[in-house]
Description:
The structure is a single chain. By secondary structure, the chain is mainly alpha-helical. Helices cover 81% and strands 0% of the residues. The protein is built from twelve helices and no strands. The chain is globular, with a radius of gyration of 18 Å. The protein starts with a helix and ends with a helix.
Amino acid sequence: MIGTIANTAAIVxxxxxxxxxxxxxxxxxxxxxxxxMGLAALGLGTNSIVxxxxxxxxxxxxxxxxxxxxxxxxxxDLNGRFDRFVSKRSKSEANLSQGLSTAIMxxxxxxxxxxxxINSALYGDETFLLTNATLDLVTSMVLASSFGIGIALxxxxxxxxxxxxxxxxxxxxxxxxxxLMAEITVVGGFLILASGLGILKVKEIPVMNLLPALAVxxxxxxxxxxxxxxxx
Length: 232
């Protein structure tokens, strides 16, 4: 798990650097960083959507995923629970829950963060995770310069996420096909895009309520496999 540890440390380090930089910045510069982070999230989300849709074999699955996931997340009040959890731990950081939800989407639900732990566990190859660590170092610096040191909490989520994939690598590897990753990429892209809209104050979207949408494509593909095995 060397790659995961490095990835986690990169987020903590980047958050510390970004938070320290924030204290030396005036309000107008912080506003510019907010805008830059929002635009970056819009761009990354759009890129994921376009790339994922190009490889999608179920072009409307993302619609069902967002709808079903949104209903489940709203019923569980994930966004409200997340906001209350964050506010209890960092009352001094305005909009931290928004920044932290964006960080979790960016850090955890990209292809590198999913495939990386599998390659690490099965082949001892840390390349994807070390590449991801470099990207997350820069991203966490920018996020923390806007939202504060609380962004470092995303490192805990990332460690648990990648650690779970690492431990389940042998079982997950055959299931994480290119087709499934394409569908997850599309859904994840929409969540990142929604985060960007919130940061730019274009539209406040309860992104955490949409988080269960990421589980819909794996469930769908598992169901297709089961039906296919029975039919055979």
